[in-house]
Design goal:
Its EC number is 2.4.2.1. This protein has 6 helices and 9 strands; from the N terminus they run αββββαββαβαβαβα. The protein has 270 residues and is of the alpha/beta class. The chain has a single domain, classed as Nucleoside phosphorylase domain (Rossmann fold). Helix 3 links the parallel strand 6 and strand 7. The longest helix is centred in the C-terminal third of the chain and has 25 residues.
Length: 270
């Protein structure tokens, strides 16, 4: 993996990806942030050596480098998931590349379902902690200790200072920003009524199919991390409606401007 990381990093540096400070991962249906970025370089994933390729139709599959609020950023337009058939090492490979390029901070977004019935679709949730239900670890491979400590501490995976700043920004801009626990499952099927009840019992406030692997690797690499979920549906097992993925994408797009404001203001203050 060290050889692959070196090859990928050198390729992107040659393409002009120079010393980004902040990495951003855009989740399902969350691409409007790119309209706010002065794009300097962009490369399709399938052109980047050793990079996975996005296979989900609403994930574009580009790595973008540019300026946002006076900072150099590198942005993943489209992420990778276990349900596409990738390994956890594949899913998190871009985080390792962004860190090698120079980022110190990682901002992550996703679309998720609200388990906590006090949270409503169209609102945002700041991830304060998570539960890994993906059945593995992106750090469970031979030689991981050459890239960082094997036994990575996860007592506080999300940076308290970044979270505090996001909460302050939300309050100043009258944005509803819940704080809660995100459970990450494999997917791609959505949950049964019994699974939603289980998730609530174990302490999840929202559920999705991403994010946790990237957060684990970011902590492995000593990056500061913050993550925001756009809540796209309400997961009430006693009144469960069939979910239409197009409705989820539409709801993500509707709620996205508030997430963009949060990220932009946070970047401005870093």
């Amino acid at each position: 993996m060290i050889k692959y990381i070196k090859e990928t990093t050198e390729y992107l540096q040659e393409k002009g990806f120079e010393n980004p400070e902040i990495g951003i991962i855009l989740g399902t249906g969350l691409g409007q942030l790119l309209n706010e970025i002065e794009v300097l370089k962009e490369v399709s994933y399938n052109h980047i050596p050793n990079f996975p390729t996005a296979t989900v139709e609403f994930h574009k599959g580009k790595l973008i480098y540019g300026n946002l609020e006076g900072r150099k950023v590198v942005v993943m337009q489209g992420r990778f998931h276990l349900y596409e058939g990738y390994s956890l090492q594949d899913v998190t490979y871009p985080v390792r590349i962004m860190q090698q390029l120079g980022i110190k901070t990682l901002l992550v977004s996703n679309a998720s379902g609200a388990i906590n019935l006090n949270f409503k679709k169209g609102e945002l949730m700041l991830i304060d902690d998570h539960i890994n239900l993906q059945g593995g670890s992106p750090l469970a491979f031979k030689g991981v200790e050459q890239l960082g400590t094997r036994f990575t501490d996860m007592s506080a995976p999300y940076d308290a200072n970044l979270n505090h700043q996001l909460e302050t920004i939300a309050k100043e801009n009258n944005i509803t920003l819940h704080k809660g626990v995100y459970a990450s499952v494999v997917g791609p099927q959505l949950e049964t009524r019994a699974e939603y009840r289980y998730l609530k019992i174990i302490g999840a406030d929202a559920v999705g199919m991403s994010t946790v692997p990237e957060i684990i690797v970011a902590n492995h690499l000593n990056l500061k991390v913050a993550a925001v979920s756009v809540l796209t549906d309400e997961c009430d097992p006693d009144n469960l409606q069939a979910v239409d993925i197009e409705e989820i994408i539409a709801m993500a797009g509707k709620a996205e401007p508030e997430m963009i404001l949060l990220f932009k203001e946070l970047i401005k203050s870093l």
